[in-house]
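Data availability (excerpt). The following record was deposited with the supplementary files.
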Amino acid sequence: MMRKRNIITLALLAAGLSSQAQDVNKLIDQKDVERIIKTLSADDMQGRGTFTPGIDKAATFIESEFKKAGLQPLTGLTSYRQGFTAYRTSAVQKQVKLDGQMVPEANVVVIAGANFDWNNNTDVQVARITAEQNFQQEYRTYIRSGKKTLLIIDPKFGETFGFLKERFNSNVNMQAPAGTGTQQVVMVLGIYDNVKLFEVNYKTKTDNPSLFNVAGMIPGKSKPNEYVVFSGHYDHLGIIKPMEGDSIANGADDDASGTTAMISLAKYYKKLNNNERTLIFVAFTAEEIGGFGSQYFSKQLDPEKTVAMFNIEMIGKTSKFGQNTAFITGYERSDFGEILQRNLQGTAFTFHPDPYPQQNLFYRSDNATLARLGVPAHTISTDQIDTDKLYHSVDDEFSSLDAANITATIRAIALSSRSIVAGKDTPKRIAKLER
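Predicted structure:
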């Protein structure tokens, strides 16, 4: 009798999952997914660079999708734009001489909050990162040293240097006017042995541009003060160095794919209209230049009331685990992944731990700020980051994506999140990161 009951129970569970799978397939439509990504990654968005007309155009589109879906603005706001002010310092002069030789500006990155001049200063440490060393480890050591530093970087790390240049092209600070900063780090790419003389002349201008996330919500029915966040970042690099006549970094995978997933999930849950917890859907700005959108958002939300965060980044291609798979950063830090996988029993989709722990992806995306505060905040991705040649390039376009894979991943997130949305499962908290 007991075995018969178990068989009946399993059959009912399978029937229930089958019904939900049919619903998700109807409510999350691949053609609509393609429409959203194509719009966000189109050339007329100009790469959605922070502080550009292109990102404003992208925000307007996301707002229109939220409005059509019937989302409410966040509590206390009258629109979907969650605005804040930043302090931006841009270089107007950046000259470096080593042993009397002028260094090409393309080979210089400066991290500083104010004008400064060096002329063989005794309080400047001259250091180098050689080809044999671990770049990330050495870089962090010097950046965190608090010392004025002239850092010579081996050309082997040219690609990484390029990423740093993109990130620090404009130094943005949310907490104080950038001109009050004291950090002075000058990075030079090249072979410069036994530097004896150095001169640096750095002059800047500062302004106070506005930034904004785009966010909406669906209030919870029985647990309105418990929040589940779904997110992606809608900014990208904008216009970059041309390649074969193309200078628009469209950012189709990074992160139009994640933003599309967030919008699709908002529409899905609004149609179901059965969420017990409050659901917040947010497109973050300024991820590419320091994660400022998610940092601001996290300060407006009580982390103790935030049950989970589904941050979605780069789901445009098949993961290294094959079709119908994705990985979760920080998998071992909570039981978030286990809950998601349990909800997918009976389907072909599986979630896996992050296969790239050396990349430190858990603290490199928009989940990081809430995760540091103890929230089970994880990023879901399929990107093969160790071999992805289109990352941060002009070729990250819609034509390079697998729309079926994106749609399958979005549907899997919808099914796997349902017990958390329903208030039945609460992931374990992550250990707070003290800094």
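Summary of structural features: The CA atoms of residues 317 and 402 lie 5 Å apart.
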